[in-house]
């Protein structure tokens, strides 16, 4: 595994590039797009495990931190969805350069999945596969979800410890979510995410994974069904919704000392990326 | 500020990012600061606090490395031939080697966040390159006042009846345990934060070690958040160690408005500034010493604490 720093001047990104198991090299690459804020902290171990397994399976893998997140340059308040799409493009170019492969797939988590869906329109050659784990299909709902996590997290802290916050959880959620800045501009950009962000994505195959027992799954089902019926035929639609039986609390402060690695969902996602390669 | 990421250590199995001041030479930096995992959170720290701290240190001319211990974050698992604590110490030493090489420093300050304080403490005991040890929410020692306060906090947040019932239940269980031959209470020893309560450090042994480290030339600091009921007033550390002669040289900071994992952004700013100030003070003290190549800490000639009282 090689840590790298890449991207244009003034927008340096941190990445981890993994070579495939030489004996199994597939001549294909995967770029991994992280979720936002506390959701990324929570799922870091999961993302590492997926990257390791993909490399063992034969993929070149690049996972990276968006500008203003993780180990990349930029401050917490620099989040910008349009710029984050450019970051995915930079990562895409980087993995093509480092691997020499022509075929690349992207795997995105939550908000990272929706950014990837939107950015997929920017690459010249269509992606081989676009795999989306619990993608955000409705920015407004997602923001409400984040806000609820923030309020629950801060109220938990206030109840559990001796701290008296000068600002209510509901007031602080307007500019941050569980300790990660959410500027007015980023909030506006997220609120504009719609089902079209996912259905207009471009790849030879697009698969979304979501817990089958949630309202979110039912929403995605409707969105994907409508998209399939609008295309020439259901069989030619590249969109697939894959039910999983794993409910993940993506954004929570209380569980900071627990790593999430749901094996059943992991298996499905690896199978989607490996496909009939 | 310049950031460079590395794979380092044995077999290049550890992952870290060095953060250097913009002007690398002649900035007067005598120390490099080590930042690493808090619990299982990867090297960026809870709410990316290590990145914020690293960049503020760089603004003050002090280089740092933020890295993952073996088996945590992005670092590879260890081979398993060392115990948990031994491995952590070895990784911290490898990070000192790496930062020393990149930033051209030979002395280091270890900042330990929660369980990271345990690893920092263990490393400071054996590595002479450590010039400063700063532990956050690590070892907590109660006093009579903190115990009273703790009940008041419980009563305030949970109500008198609920707190009384909880206390009665706890006493009954302790008595039952004592009847079975177990230890009736653990209140006489340090309770580490719930986030990583795997080591209990006897108070006397802890004081004796800090005293020895101080006499060897190390600067020591402790910082506590308001996140734990067990630590609940400004001078608790000083009161707890009044009789051990630690209060004159161990700096203690209490940030009651801050939760343990430094959640809200306003708290992160306060926290980062607290850590930066402590490191800057240490660096300036070493600069004032006027020694271009600082000697390593010396073995203490002071008698052990047990013989002083």
Structure in words:
The complex is a heterodimer of chains A (277) and B (309). By secondary structure, chain A is of the alpha/beta class. Chain A has nine helices and ten strands. In chain A, β3, α1 and β4 form a beta-alpha-beta unit. The longest helix of chain A has 22 residues, at 139-160. Chain A is globular and about 55 Å long. The mean pLDDT of chain A is 88. Chain B is α/β, with parallel strands linked by helices. Chain B is 39% helix and 17% strand. Chain B is built from eight helices and ten strands. Chain A binds chain B through residues 1-5, 12, 14, 16, 38, 41, 44-45, 48, 69-71, 73, 76, 153-154, 157, 159, 161-166, 172, 175-176, 178-181, 253, 256-259, and chain B through 3-7, 15, 17, 39-44, 46-48, 51-52, 66, 73-74, 76, 153, 157, 195-196, 226-229, 232, 256-265, 268.
DSSP helical segment count of chain B? 8
The average pLDDT score of chain A comes to 88
Beta percentage of chain B is 15-25%
Rough shape of chain A? globular
Query: What helical percentage do the residues of chain B reach?
Result: 25-40%
Question: What's the gist of this structure?
Answer:
By secondary structure, chain A is of the alpha/beta class.
Key features of this structure:
heterodimer; A: 277 residues; alpha/beta; eight-stranded mixed β-sheet; B: 309 residues; two-stranded antiparallel sheet; globular
Per-chain topology:
The complex is a heterodimer of chains A (277) and B (309).
Chain A: E1 2-6, E2 13-18, E3 28-33, H1 38-57, E4 60-64, H2 81-99, E5 103-109, H3 110-119, E6 127-133, H4 139-160, H5 169-172, E7 176-177, E8 180-181, H6 184-191, H7 195-199, E9 203-211, H8 215-230, E10 239-244, H9 263-274
Parallel strand pairs in A: 3-4, 3-5, 5-6, 6-9, 9-10
Antiparallel strand pairs in A: 1-2, 2-4, 7-8
Helix pairs in contact in A: 1-9, 2-3, 4-6
Chain B: E1 2-8, E2 14-20, E3 31-35, H1 49-59, E4 64-67, H2 84-103, E5 107-113, H3 115-126, E6 130-136, E7 139-140, H4 144-158, H5 160-179, E8 191-192, H6 203-215, E9 219-225, H7 236-240, E10 250-255, H8 265-288
Parallel strand pairs in B: 3-4, 3-5, 5-6, 6-9, 9-10
Antiparallel strand pairs in B: 1-2, 2-4, 7-8
Helix pairs in contact in B: 1-8, 2-3, 4-5
């Amino acid at each position: 595994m090689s840590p790298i720093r890449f991207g244009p001047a003034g927008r340096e990104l941190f990445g981890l590039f993994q070579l495939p198991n030489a004996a199994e090299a597939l001549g294909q690459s995967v770029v991994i797009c992280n979720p936002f804020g506390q959701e990324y902290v929570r799922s870091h171990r999961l993302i590492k495990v997926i990257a390791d397994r993909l490399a063992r399976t034969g993929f070149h893998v690049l996972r990276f931190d968006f500008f203003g997140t993780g180990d990349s340059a930029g401050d917490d308040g620099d989040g910008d969805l349009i710029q984050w799409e450019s970051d995915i493009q930079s990562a895409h170019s980087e993995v093509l350069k480092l691997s020499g492969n022509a075929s690349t797939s992207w795997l995105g988590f939550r908000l990272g999945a929706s950014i990837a869906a939107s950015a997929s329109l920017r690459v010249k050659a269509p992606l081989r596969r676009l795999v989306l784990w619990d993608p955000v299909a409705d920015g407004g709902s997602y923001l409400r979800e984040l806000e609820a996590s923030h309020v629950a997290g801060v109220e938990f802290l206030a109840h559990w410890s001796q701290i008296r916050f000068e600002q209510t959880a509901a007031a602080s959620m307007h500019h941050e979510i569980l300790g990660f800045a959410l500027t007015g501009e980023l909030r506006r950009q997220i609120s504009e995410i719609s089902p079209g962000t996912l259905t207009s994505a471009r790849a030879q195959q697009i698969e979304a994974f979501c817990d089958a027992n949630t309202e979110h799954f039912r929403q995605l089902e409707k969105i994907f069904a409508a998209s399939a019926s609008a295309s020439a035929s259901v069989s030619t639609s590249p969109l697939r919704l894959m039910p999983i039986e794993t409910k993940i609390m993506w954004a929570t402060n209380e569980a900071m000392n627990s790593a999430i690695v749901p094996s059943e969902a992991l298996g499905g996602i690896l199978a989607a990326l490996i496909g009939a390669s | 500020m310049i950031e460079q990421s590395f794979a380092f250590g044995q077999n290049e199995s550890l992952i870290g990012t060095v953060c250097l001041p913009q002007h690398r030479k002649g900035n007067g930096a005598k120390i490099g600061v080590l930042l690493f995992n808090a619990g299982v959170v990867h090297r960026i720290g809870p709410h990316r606090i290590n990145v914020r701290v690293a960049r503020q240190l760089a603004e003050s001319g002090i280089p740092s490395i933020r890295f993952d211990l073996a088996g945590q974050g992005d670092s590879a698992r260890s081979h398993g031939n060392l115990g948990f604590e031994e491995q952590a110490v070895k990784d911290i030493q490898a990070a000192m080697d790496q930062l020393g090489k990149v930033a051209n420093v030979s002395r280091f300050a270890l900042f330990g966040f929660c369980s990271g304080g345990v690893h920092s403490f263990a490393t400071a005991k054996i590595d002479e390159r450590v010039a400063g040890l700063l532990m956050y929410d690590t070892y907590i020692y109660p006093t009579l006042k903190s115990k009273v306060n703790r009940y008041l906090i419980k009563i305030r947040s949970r109500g008198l009846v609920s707190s009384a019932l909880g206390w009665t239940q706890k006493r009954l269980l302790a008595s039952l345990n004592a009847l079975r031959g177990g230890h009736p209470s653990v209140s006489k020893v340090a309770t580490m934060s719930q986030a990583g309560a795997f080591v209990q450090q006897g108070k006397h042994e802890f004081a004796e070690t800090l005293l020895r480290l101080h006499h060897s030339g190390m600067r020591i600091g402790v910082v506590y958040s308001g996140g734990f009921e067990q630590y609940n007033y400004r001078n608790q550390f000083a009161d707890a160690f009044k009789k051990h002669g630690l209060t004159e040289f161990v700096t203690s900071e209490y940030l009651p408005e801050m939760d343990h994992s430094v959640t809200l952004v306003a708290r992160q700013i306060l926290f980062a500034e607290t850590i930066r100030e402590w490191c800057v003070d240490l660096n300036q003290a070493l600069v004032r010493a006027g020694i271009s190549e600082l000697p390593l800490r010396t073995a203490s000639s002071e008698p052990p604490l047990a013989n002083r009282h």
